[in-house]
Design goal:
2 domains, mainly alpha, globular, MetI-like fold
Length: 325
Amino acid sequence: MFAYLLRRFLYAIPILIGVNLVTFALFFVVNTPDDMARMQLGVKRVTPEAIEKWKAERGYDKPLFVNTGAAGIGVVTETIFFAKSARMFAGDFGRAEDGRDITREIRLRMGPSLAIAVPTFALGLFVTVSFALLLAFFRATAFDFWGVVLCVAMMSVSGLFYIIGGQYLVSKVWRLVPISGFGEGLDAWKFLILPVAIGVVSGIGSSTRWYRTIFLEEIGRDYVRTARAKGLSEIAVLFRHVLRNALIPILTGVVAVIPLLFMGSLLTESFFGIPGLGSYTIDAIQAQDFAVVRSMVFIGSVLYIAGLILTDISYTLVDPRVRFE
């Protein structure tokens, strides 16, 4: 097991380097440092001196990958790539184009993102698994049929509809909660109720259908027929056998999502004015702030790889027969 995990960690290093290189190269194909300077200075006619000054202040006056004018290891280290990307492996994300420290911004915005993502994830998982078990229990009945129809209808609706419709109905018409914004401490709950509820409702359709398919596949296996032959009730069969044996495919999707909760929800945070990592990323894309975009892509890659490793570990906890050599 240890050797397997060590290999996975070692495999992650070239993957992260590749993601870093691709992100860096794509950004500078679209925007050269001169283009970035003109956009950030915000004037139509910018003098070459102003551009060079802007680049020097932010470290964009060096070569991209190889500095032929430097000596020794400086050929690699005295480049834009090393200064802006390679240091992220040590947790140094540098500064945004507006001068703010990216690491500090991530720490400040992680709390609001988790305040939305964790309740949405936990409640959504409970609701969808419970609903899927209920449909599996009443399989091939009118309740199952109309439940599937409801799920298909819900998953066919855009997530924006739930957000805009929820804001209009709950906040503007009923005036139950604020339409957007965020508060500190215990005052934050009234700003989180609506985003969490919308996040749970919008995910019911697709997740329930997927879990229902998994449960129905398990119900047709031999061990279920054996359990029924022993006199177990249908509820006992579902919860003691079907649910337990369906955990591996469920964990495949669930555990891999957990690390990505730190990244926040792009649409939800933007529409509800939540100062989390999702809205931070959207603002950086709109402002073409390469430093922030690069950092968020790197963090997302690290968390996704961590999620895959956690998934493999969870397999051994759920099913002792699973072993990694």
